[in-house]
Structures are given as structure tokens and as C-alpha cells.
Amino acid sequence: MEVPTVSLVIPPSNSIPAEPPKIISAKMLAESASLTSAIPSAYYFSEDSYELADPNDPEFQLPTIDFSLLTSDSPDQRSKMLHELANICRDWGCFLVTNHGVTESLKQAMIEAADRFFNLTEEEKHNIAKKYEADPTQIRYGTSYNARSEKVRLWRDFIKLRLHPDFPTLNENDGYSEVAMKYSKKTREIATELVEAISESLGLDPNYIYKALDLDSGVQFLLANYYPPCPQPELAMGLSHHTDQCLITILTDNDVSGLQVLHNHKWVTVTSTPKTFLVILADQMQWW
């Protein structure tokens, strides 16, 4: 796995030329003594041409789906939610989900486990990923998905695990794998219910998309992003504009807002909302 590096020159304390340290993660760069008030130009991100939406404009209020009503035994309640879901998927392609059944303690445990991973030494993190270098789709750690094609380095680190149909082990002592397994099973249940509901909202059999894509053997990933404090946040970008390549994304956060979604040619800031997930329809679902 290639990891982009940035060299920061530290003035040597004597006349012998010193080897500048190689910065191999955004976290390491943010904590470097050489980083004071200016970030390296390699992280400068140009502004996007789209406008920022007015958060008080009703047109740009992110819609919400009550998961308990979507899975209700009441035909009337479910029918109403399916109708709303169809409109939201068509007009937005993303929505908040409430009453989803995942406890706040499990969500917090997953966030804390990810935080423990990112606080390991760089050597420890890369050694974990190195164990699976023969099949990097199982575990990937780094600062960029494609260091060769990205023109601007992103102000974030990530760990990506393939959790289904097989499950890799990071470090048996830190509890990450155990929490990730519990979290992935619960979110997979939500994803399955949502896929069935979306299928039905399209006038198809509830199991049509699930069976057509053979989701029992479909791959599930867990991706954790780490965005360290940045002295020039107006210049850097944690994650550039993109669409997800999968079927559906279920996203949680650590109570810090920053994510934006594009709606009607304007960027809508997604406010961190307790006890919710953000669901994003990805490329494969858009095709359906």
C-alpha cells in the first residue's frame, strides 16, 4: 500500500545535516512540532463552485425517516412511510434515520474503538494493515484512497475493513474487532430493511433487489475517518466531493458537524443529530 508522504524540514541543532522526518499521516502532520500556523501547500484545496444552502430554508432541510414506522406491523403506517421514502430517494438520495434500534452505547463504543486505533503509533497501524497486504481489500490504512491520482492530499486518515462475508482481526487486545463485529451486524440489519423498503417503494417485490444482487454474499465494509485539528481549515479538505461506489452507506459521527451533501445545486451542511444515522444512496442504488 502506497502512503503519500510530506517532508517537513526541522532546523538541525548542529552542523550535521539532519534527515527531515517523513509525515505519513494527517494525524502525524497535525501533531508535528514543525507545523505551526501554515499547512503544506500539497493540502490546499480550491473552493467548489456550488453555493452553500441557507440552513433556515425549508427546501434544504434534510429529510428524516422513522425506521420504526417503516418496519411497522400497521399496513397504513408502512404504506405512508414507503410513499415518503420513494419521494426522498428521488429528490434527495440521502436522509436521516431515527428509531433505528442501535443503542447509543454501541455507537459510542464504535467511535471510541476507532479513536483508540488512530491513537496507535504509525508503526503499529501500518503493521496491522501489512498483515493483510496480500489482500488489501480486507484491511486498508492510510491517508488517501489513490495517492497516484489525487492532486490534493486530504486532511484525514482512514481505516477500512471488509466485514462480510469474512471478518479480519485487527488486534485482539484493543477490542476493536469485537465492537466492529457487533456494530456491523446491527447496521447490516438496518441496511437490509432499507433495501427491502426501497425495493417495495419502486413497485417491486420487497426482496427483488436483495435477491438480484445476492446480498447474502455481498461485501460489507466498515470505514472510519479521522480528521485531526487543522490550523487552516479554510484551505484544507477532509474528504473531497464524491459519490459512494457501493449500494448504500450508513454513516454516524462523533457529534461534530462538517459533512455536506449536494441538493438542488447547493451544498447542505448536515448538522450532527443525536440518535440518528445518515443514510446515503450510493451509485448502485441510484442505478436501481
Give the topology, please.
Elements (H helix, E strand, L loop, with lengths): L5 E2 L14 E2 L2 H5 L20 E2 L11 E3 H4 L4 H17 L2 E5 L5 H15 L3 H9 L8 E4 L14 E8 L11 H26 L6 H5 L7 E7 L21 E4 L8 E4 L2 E4 L7 E5 L1 H5 L1
InterPro entries: DIOX_N, IPNS-like_FE2OG_OXY, IPNS-like_sf, Plant_2OG-oxidoreductases
Protein name: 2-oxoglutarate-dependent dioxygenase 19 isoform X2
Keywords: Dioxygenase, Iron, Metal-binding, Oxidoreductase, Vitamin C
Question: Care to describe what's here?
Answer:
- With 288 residues, this protein is of the alpha+beta class.
- It has one domain (51-287): Jelly Rolls.
- Helices cover 30% and strands 17% of the residues.
- The chain contains eight helices and twelve strands.
- The protein has helices spanning 26-30, 67-70, 75-91, 104-118, 122-130, 176-201, 208-212, 283-287; strands spanning 6-7, 22-23, 51-52, 64-66, 94-98, 139-142, 157-164, 220-226, 248-251, 260-263, 266-269, 277-281.
- A hairpin with a 2-residue loop joins β10 and β11 (266-269).
- α4 packs across α6.
- It is globular and about 60 Å long.
- Mean pLDDT is 86; it is low at 1-20.
